[in-house]
Amino acid sequence: VTTHSFLPDPVRIIGTGLIGGSLGLALRAAGVRIQLEDASPGTTALAVELGVGTVAEPDGPSPELVVVAAPPDVAADLVVQALRRFPGALVTDTASVKESVLVRVLDARANGTIGTGDLARYVGAHPMAGREVSGVIAARSDLFQGRPFVIVPHPEGEPRGVSTLKAIATEIGAVPTVLDAHGHDAAVAHVSHVPQILSSLVATTLTGTEDKAMGLSGQGLRDTTRIASSDPRLWVEILAGNAPAIAPVVREARDRLDGVVDALDALGGTPDPDAGARRTLASLIADGNRGVGRIPGKHGGGTDTFSTVRVLVPDRPGELGRLFTEMGSIGVNLEDLQLEHTLGQPVGVAHLSVRAGREDLLTSELRDRGWTVAEA
Amino acid sequence: VTTHSFLPDPVRIIGTGLIGGSLGLALRAAGVRIQLEDASPGTTALAVELGVGTVAEPDGPSPELVVVAAPPDVAADLVVQALRRFPGALVTDTASVKESVLVRVLDARANGTIGTGDLARYVGAHPMAGREVSGVIAARSDLFQGRPFVIVPHPEGEPRGVSTLKAIATEIGAVPTVLDAHGHDAAVAHVSHVPQILSSLVATTLTGTEDKAMGLSGQGLRDTTRIASSDPRLWVEILAGNAPAIAPVVREARDRLDGVVDALDALGGTPDPDAGARRTLASLIADGNRGVGRIPGKHGGGTDTFSTVRVLVPDRPGELGRLFTEMGSIGVNLEDLQLEHTLGQPVGVAHLSVRAGREDLLTSELRDRGWTVAEA
User: How does pLDDT run across B102-128, given as a tens digit for each residue?
Assistant: First the structure.
């Protein structure tokens, strides 16, 4: 294995958890030498055993890049230390909240702990893993595949910071995106932190519900609450770390919910309430439609570029295989799939998402082959 | 086709929309004669053309069962009329809200419009379709397959009401469940109406977000907001119709969100806030965990009876087919599947849900056959 010339080498990873470990695995596969450091020697040893890299040696080669892969509350101190310890190296961190880290690095320059030249070597990062597990034992070289890798420069940073991280993001199969610290924190508040709070909120309303009522649960409830299974300890740190960006969005949602409560009270209490009550509910749903339409990708936004074909599939081994083999021979590619079935039922419904315009061909060909395809 | 002796015949369906039309298709397939009525002659004609049944004739045979398949705001009047028009028939309605309909039927008895014997022939129903589309054009005989069919008796009803609807539910492949009107309305408020409100609320927070921020969207956001694409007109009627049952649940959620806003303000504003702020966030997430655990089925509740195996799948026709064919030959049945891939990426990750205990066999056999299976 030879290193690509545009990748920094060696790379020092400080903090060998899920993110540091996965980054190490992915970069090592590209031929980069990985030097590991962790507050816990046991964790470092486990990371070495898992093939993430080698233990950093005091007299080893100086790193070209230092990655601080530690939680937001300790990341800034480790970044400042790294800027002092490795005077030639680019230093980055992978904390999921960026503004509080940058502010503390700027403070270190203001109080003279580091110089302006040191500050220039810092660039923030947030490789999004989309996986709420932790520990190096869960590390995978493909963790960042197809995921956003946010690069967070600041006005006093060297341009090579951004270009080096772009090279790394591309190498590990991630999608590089550049945002400033404030923009990053606001973005993850909207697309991740507030949805987590409201999904958990939906789930809390179910704790006292009767079993029989829970039997009426459908796919909508399952989708809405899927992320409500997340780890409380991890999420308290994430929400606390980004509280200034999350609070205004949650407050706005809360204010809107106040209006919904008033509207429901009016509709439930009087036979002929003010027309404003219905309008409040209608605009909640309509604005929600607009919001969903802004989500890029296969489910949101692109609704007119994909069509869904629903096929009944007997619930026994090999049937889905037969279906997909036949799709392959028909020559229609599957863009997305949702499988819907209820325990104890002998059939499920496969929702096949295909490129718009291909649905008629697929439907008629599948029917010719004996499949039950639901009406469009 | 011969009718099963326990099914009523003929059945009069009043209101030929999605529910009435689908019920007609499903019962007709079982040999039941279906007589159709709708306020709109054009809609009735379309239903006949689609094979739902025949137009009701004034001098035709009397129905054994009348199904009022109309929105909640007109259902009660049509039920009262049907009890008077068809003195021997059992009468039911399919409105998605049950208590307000029952109250108005009881009012009709109290003011002498119908007698106590008429009231005894009424039994409520809510066949849950799980599909937010409307119109007979969308009707399908398999609409109720595997879905809950709620039967809603009242203390003065004849027992044959429940047994007849159980026979119908079973015939059309649905899962019959008996709840009283109040219990039904509270149940759907919890498992359907409040999740709809909060999913729409999440989506409304995205309307003003920058495009670049939306690029960081992940699967969690897509899941949480999937039902926020629902039709505003339909949902205003549903929410307004069940406002008394929904309001207390939404109010409780709003009160809890007040606490979350206060906690976020405290955490964002002061470097060392009260410990209560973190506790508020932790108990939100932890109570959400408990709530999700109460959802029956493959995703909620059964988390320890199923295991997930993640396999990389090249994004070209036939590859999923090959995977499932091989699963079939390994002899491991697929219980659920989620396909995760990002536009423009050459591979996707298939999350295969299999019965707990089968994951090691599947992983090793798939690896032997050359598939890339992610670490557990």
Answer: 999 999 999 999 999 999 999 999 999
Identity at B84, one-letter amino acid code: R
A34-37 vs A54-55, strand pairing mode: parallel
- Residue pLDDT, tens place only, B279-299: 999 999 999 999 999 988 644
Residue B5's SS3 state is coil
Tokens representing residue B73 in the block: 């705001």
Lookup: tokens for A13: 């990873």
Q: Residues near A133 by Cβ (< 8 Å), separated by ≥ 6?
A: A18
- Strand (E) positions, B62-144? 65-68, 90-93, 124-127
Over the Cα atoms of chain A, what is R_g? 25
Distance, in Å, from the CA atom of B286 to the CA atom of B277, rounded to the nearest integer, reads 14
pLDDT, mean of each 10-residue run, chain B (376 residues): 74 96 94 96 90 94 97 91 97 94 96 97 92 73 89 97 96 93 96 96 94 89 91 87 95 97 90 84 94 72 62 77 84 75 59 84 92 78
Pair of tokens at residue A186: 């606001």
DSSP H stretches of helix in B178-333: 181-188, 194-204, 211-214, 219-225, 232-241, 243-269, 275-293, 319-330
| A146 interaction partners in chain B (CB closer than 8 Å) | 341-342, 345, 347
A365: tokens are 């060909």
Q: Cα–Cα distance between B217 and A300 in angstroms, integer?
A: 10
- Complex ipTM, two decimals? 0.75
Q: How many CA atoms lie within 13 A of B73 on its CB side?
A: 10
How close, in Å, is residue A114 to chain B by CA atoms? 23
Nearest-by-Cβ selection for A187 from B194, B216, B249 = B216
In this complex, do A328 and B342 lie within 8 Å of one another by their Cβ atoms?
Answer: no
- CB burial class (10 A; 0-12, 13-18, 19+) of residue B90? buried
CA neighbor of A83 nearest in space, from A98, A61, A104, A99 = A104
The helix/strand/coil state of A39 is coil
B298:A196 CB<8 A:
no
Q: Which amino acid is at B291?
A: G
Indicate the Cα dihedral angle A35, A39, A41, A42, nearest 10°.
-110
Angle at A34 between CA A28 and CA A36, to 5 degrees: 135
Q: Find residue B312's DSSP bridge partners.
A: B349
From CA A239, how far away is CA A190, in angstroms rounded? 12
Pairing between strand A148-152 and A65-68? unpaired
Beta bridge partners of A12: A35, A66
Asked whether the beta carbons of residue B261 and residue A251 sit closer than 8 angstroms, the reply is yes
Structure tokens at A192: 């991740």
Q: Does B202 touch chain A (CB under 8 A)?
A: yes
Q: For residue A344, what are its two tokens?
A: 């104890």
Q: How far apart are CA A238 and CA A231, in angstroms?
A: 11
Contact A154, A102 (CB under 8 A): yes
Task: Please tell me the distance from the alpha carbon of residue B351 to that of residue B309, in angstroms, as a whole number.
Answer: 6
pLDDT at A344 over 70: no
- Is this model's pTM higher than 0.90 or not? no
Instruction: For residue A351, give both structure tokens.
Output: 């929702």
The CA distance from A375 to B16, in Å, is 17
pLDDT at A323: 87
Percent of all residues in chain A with a pLDDT value above 90, rounded to a whole number: 61
What's the mean pLDDT in A275-304? 79
